[in-house]
Amino acid sequence: MTAIRSPLALKPLLLADAATCSAMGIVLTAGPGLIGQATRIPPALLFYAGAILFPIAAFMAVVALCRPIPGPAAWLVVAGNAGWVAGSALLLLAGWIAPNGLGVAFVAAQALAVALLAALEHNALRRAASAHAGRKPARQSLTP
């Protein structure tokens, strides 16, 4: 397993991602009825989408706090974010839910925020990989 030794801006991005993930998890699990009523998104979907964010946020935080940051785990965060964005788009485009205008805006806004974080994390990972090109291969261990 490769590790990122010089994460550039990766660590704060992963921590910000974990924090926003946690915040959205709190919002969705604390108020699915109110949000569902305002957006016409099923409250159960909101609740379970929020609940799944807590372990994801924990994973992001653990990855961010590793020294060095494990490259494959960081790429998994980027891939997971891309999957979340794709799932959000599919949710709307496939007609699986029938949100009102506010609901469409809600799903689109959170998907855009996640896409932005994924793009920033992706760029940070690429910069880190470029910075390490031609150097000795990274350690195989997650320990500093």
Structure report:
The chain crosses the membrane at residues 12-35, 47-66, 73-96, 102-120. Keywords: Membrane, Transmembrane, Transmembrane helix. The protein is mainly alpha-helical. The protein contains 5 helices and 2 strands. It has helices at residues 10-30, 32-39, 43-65, 71-93, 101-132; strands spanning 3-4, 69-70. Strands 1-2 form a two-stranded antiparallel sheet. Helix 1 runs antiparallel to helix 5 (101-132) and helix 4 packs antiparallel against helix 5. The protein is elongated and about 55 Å long. It starts with a strand and ends in a 12-residue tail after the last helix. The model is unreliable at 140-144 (pLDDT under 50).
What attributes characterize this protein structure?
single chain, 144 residues, mainly alpha, two-stranded antiparallel sheet, 5 helices, 2 strands, elongated, disordered C terminus
Note the main sheet. 2 strands, antiparallel
DSSP helix fraction = over 70%
How many β strands by DSSP?
A: 2
Radius of gyration: 17 Å
End-to-end gap: 14 Å
Category from helices, strands and their pairing? mainly alpha
Strand order of the largest sheet: 1-2
SSE order, one letter for each helix or strand: EHHHEHH
For the residues shown, what is the average pLDDT?
89
**Helix tally?**
5
Which assembly state applies to the chains in this document?
single chain
| Shape summary | elongated
Domain tally: 1
Q: Unreliable stretches, pLDDT < 50, 5 or more residues? A: 140-144
Provide the β-strand percentage band. under 5%
